[in-house]
Specification:
The chain folds into two domains: 13-268 and 363-385, Aldolase class I (TIM Barrel); 271-357, no CATH class. The chain has helices at residues 44-52, 65-72, 80-98, 115-124, 140-143, 159-171, 195-199, 205-218, 235-243, 253-256, 269-277, 299-303, 335-344, 370-379, and strands at 13-16, 25-28, 32-34, 57-60, 104-109, 129-133, 151-156, 179-182, 189-190, 226-229, 248-251, 283-286, 292-295. Helix 1 (44-52) runs parallel beside helix 3 and helix 3 (80-98) runs parallel beside helix 4. Helix 5 (140-143) links the parallel strand 6 (129-133) and strand 7 (151-156). It has 14 helices and 13 strands. The strands form three sheets. An eight-stranded parallel β-sheet has the order 3-11-10-8-7-6-5-4. A three-stranded antiparallel β-sheet has the order 9-13-12. A two-stranded antiparallel sheet has the order 1-2. It is α/β, with parallel strands linked by helices and 394 residues long. The structure holds flavin mononucleotide (FMN).
Length: 394
């Protein structure tokens, strides 16, 4: 059957710089950006393909030097932070070329020791948007102040965080150019809330999105979009999130199931196989960043499960001093190493972050070219391509 979910077109998403010296404005015809997926998953192939299909492609800018050195054998004579910057600069330039100067964003974690340097190199290399999460990026406006056309967007997971961020940035004379809301109940990877917040159902997506929209409107920031992430899988989900007051969505797990994801590191076949075959709920495990993180249940993630689990530290080296909050050799394990093992396809040792949809029974999964997936997101997917049980944001 060739019936589609819905024939209503999605509204475009406009991003504009709120730097006093900039008039930059970009309109994405499809209100979808991808979430940054570290380490190394959202590279130039994926980001440029999304932009070329009318959405907004976002590179991961998180500790790229390590997999470049370990897997690609590049920048091996450089120190860790220098390699991170060179790799990110290379990816930004490549992505811009692949999408003819179209939109390229970068995701960087505030918790990184070299956050400031990575934000600076991103702006210098001509990135359009910096998305910064895993902490509140208070200093970002100053870091990129000399680059008025570099738009900046903090990730928030609660209305309180949205209020703090806007207040602090407005006091510096800079409004955020977008607020990215990540649901702690659905997003993959690190969560901006505690285990108790998650278990007790606090910060419900529909409530946070509409309250954040109102917060911005009340401050005269009607042109600052709320972009909502976590649990968005298909066009119906996008429409639902927009109905709460968001102007766009950020999707990650579904983009991992594309031909282009992880292509620079060999195609991340084990990651995709696990995503395709997993039919049990994702679990919350402990990250050395001090945050709970959502992952596929594997021998490794089970060992460090956040609930009902005694954790024994794993002896390890600290190859890159990547996280500010990580207590080097005393931390529970080296997250960089285990994320890189996942990139390499090591089932035993890899840490495979995933959004909650990946653990939902009956969800429609297939590995598609970005072009086809974007067509599904724009136009809805054929009914027979979908499993009977839908995957919708609660
Ligand atoms: C494999 C994986 C890696 C991720 N890595 C990062 C990251 O490095 N930085 C970040 O801010 N968010 C990260 N995320 C979160 C996503 O960017 C996104 O906001 C979230 O997963 C959205 O939910 P969804 O996967 O249900 O679409 C990651 C998610 C996944 C699945």
């Amino acid at each position: 059957m060739e019936e589609k979910e819905s024939s209503n077109p999605l509204p475009p998403l406009t991003l504009r710089s709120h730097h006093p010296d900039s008039e930059k404005q970009i309109t994405l015809q499809v209100p979808v950006i991808n979430g940054g997926m570290g380490v190394g998953i959202t590279g130039p192939a994926l980001a440029s393909a999304i932009t070329n299909e009318g959405g907004g492609g976002v590179l991961t800018g998180v500790v790229l030097g390590y997999p470049f050195q370990r897997i690609l054998g590049k920048y091996t004579d450089k120190k860790p932070y220098e390699a991170n910057q060179l790799a990110l600069e290379e990816w930004i330039i490549t992505s811009k070329e692949k999408c003819n100067g179209g939109f390229v964003g970068v995701n960087i974690m505030v918790a990184l020791s070299d956050f400031k340097e990575l934000a600076h190199v991103s702006a210098k290399s001509g990135v359009d948007l910096i998305v910064a999460g895993a902490g509140l990026p208070m200093a970002l406006p100053e870091i990129v102040n000399k680059f008025p056309d570099t738009m900046i967007a903090p990730i928030i997971s609660s209305v309180k965080a949205a209020r703090i961020m806007t207040k602090k940035w407005l006091a510096k004379g800079r409004a955020p150019d977008a607020l990215i809301y990540e649901s702690i109940h659905h997003s993959g990877g690190h969560q901006g809330g505690s285990i108790d917040d998650i278990l007790e159902g606090r910060h419900k997506p529909s409530e946070v999105v509409s309250a954040t929209r109102k917060l911005l409107d009340d401050q005269g920031l009607e042109d600052v979009p709320v972009i909502a992430a976590g649990g968005v899988w298909d066009k119906k989900d996008i429409e639902e999130v927009l109905s709460w007051g968001a102007q766009g969505v950020q999707m990650a797990s579904r983009f991992l199931l594309t031909m282009e994801a992880g292509l620079e590191f060999g195609g991340i076949h084990m990651f995709k196989k696990l995503f395709m075959e997993n039919d049990i709920p994702t679990i919350l495990e402990r990250s050395p960043a001090g945050l709970p993180s959502r992952a596929i249940e594997t021998p490794f993630s089970k060992r460090f499960a956040a609930i009902d689990n005694e954790v024994i530290n794993e002896p390890h080296e600290c190859p890159s001093v990547c996280l500010v909050s990580c207590d080097k050799k005393k931390s529970i394990y080296c997250i960089l190493d285990h994320l890189t093992e996942a990139l390499k396809g090591n089932l035993e040792k890899g840490l495979y972050f995933a959004g909650s949809n990946v653990g939902k029974p009956g969800i429609h999964k297939s590995i598609l070219p970005v072009r086809e997936l974007m067509d599904y997101l724009k136009n809805g997917e054929p009914v027979d391509a979908k499993a009977a049980a839908g995957a919708h944001v609660a």
